Amino acid sequence: MARILFVCTGNTCRSPMAEAILKSKQLPGVEVKSAGVYAPNGAEASVNAKTVLEENNISHDHRSSTLTRENIDWATLVLTMTQSHKGLIMNQYPFAADKIFTLKEFADETGNLDVADPFGGNEQIYREAFKEIQKSIERIIDKIR
Predict the structure, then answer these.
(1) Rounded distance, CA 141 to CA 13, Å?
(2) Who's near 87: CB < 8 A, 6+ residues apart?
(3) Which candidate in 8, 73, 98, 142 is catalytic?
(4) Residue 24 belongs to domain with CATH number
(5) Residue 14 near residue 129 (C-beta atoms within 8 A)
(6) Is 117 a catalytic residue?
(7) Is 69 noted as a catalytic residue in this protein?
(8) How many domains does the chain divide into?
(9) Whole-prediction pTM
(10) Which of 8, 39, 67, 96 is most buried by its number of CB atoms within 10 A?
């Protein structure tokens, strides 16, 4: 069983989109959750994140949650949206360092390993973030099966 935890800042844009994209693949034996390092509990995904998911025929009922020790213990793999998220989590949970990667790092991408934060941006900026996340997820599917 693979348990994938996506992490961003507020858990209303990038990590919920990543969670929804991977869940939509319906991979047997793969569970998916998301959380945010500075997320409030219970906020909906941003309007533009929901719009972009709907445009791609992906449904996702989301409520934000703060990253907890329980999330880290649950996950077999923690994928962050930025290197700073990765560093923050590794500092807080050093025992889990071997299972924490940026999404792009785990996808064996090179160059900038951060997914840009679309928060406060228009639908086009969210579409770009969605495509960036989707591309990385496509690259990791065989690794997580």
Answers:
(1) 21
(2) none
(3) 8
(4) 3.40.50.2300
(5) yes
(6) yes
(7) no
(8) 1
(9) 0.98
(10) 8
Contact 113, 83 (CB under 8 A): yes
Per-residue model confidence as pLDDT tens for the chain (145 residues): 999 999 999 999 999 999 999 999 999 999 999 999 999 999 999 999 999 999 999 999 999 999 999 999 999 999 999 999 999 999 999 999 999 999 999 999 999 999 999 999 999 999 999 999 999 999 999 999 8
C-beta separation of 101 from 78 below 8 A: yes
* Residue 58 backbone dihedrals phi, psi, to 5 degrees: -120, 120
User: Of 3, 13, 14, 114, which residue is the catalytic one?
Assistant: 14
What is d(CA 110, CA 102) in angstroms, rounded to the nearest whole number?
11
Boundaries of domain holding 105: 2-144
Two tokens at 64? 């934000």
Helices (H), 1-145: 14-24, 47-55, 69-74, 83-92, 103-106, 123-144
Among 63, 117, 127, 139, the active-site one is: 117
Sheet with 77-80, strands from edge to edge, namely 30-36, 2-8, 77-80, 100-102
